[in-house]
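Cross-check.
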Amino acid sequence: MMYLFEERGLKMLEAFCYADALMAFDFDGTLAPIVTNPKDASLSKTTDGLLQKLRERTALIVISGRGRNDLLARLPQSIDFAIGNHGLEGLPSTAGNLQSAADLTQFWASKLESQVEKLSGVVIENKTYSLAIHYRQAKDKRKTKAKLVELVTDLHPGPRILLGKYVINLVASGAPHKGVALLEL
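Predicted model, tokenized:
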């Protein structure tokens, strides 16, 4: 094991300072705090300023579960790459997958809407190429999450299910994920 802040580790860090680097961030919960209503998420002035300074030194990527247009509206223009929908939207290699992802997302939304509207405090956010089912406002979050997981695992064709903090994301099975997007960039 090597400790980062010992002499050998510091020399390795110094070497990275002179190499081309690519800095990647998530948006919600990383660059912007988690908020009750996802539409209210924003960068603080401090974070915005730090991103601008960092961009002067290296390339920046933000990879988010948000739709790409939504993400772009919340970021400084100096970001090099904005990747949305958990890695599916914004990469040249995924352009051909978007229509099938949109069709699946619409199908899942139509299957879930009537069932989810019976659950208090649950909102479906259709991000065109993926769905986010928010249950932050539910009184009994544990029971609500269990019911939602039951509903989404019964979908056919089945989605890739990404669990977040009081949110369940549905993405087309086999679609790129954030790690694939980062590797491509």
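The chain is about 35% helix and 15% strand. The radius of gyration is 19 Å. Passed to J.P. for a second look.
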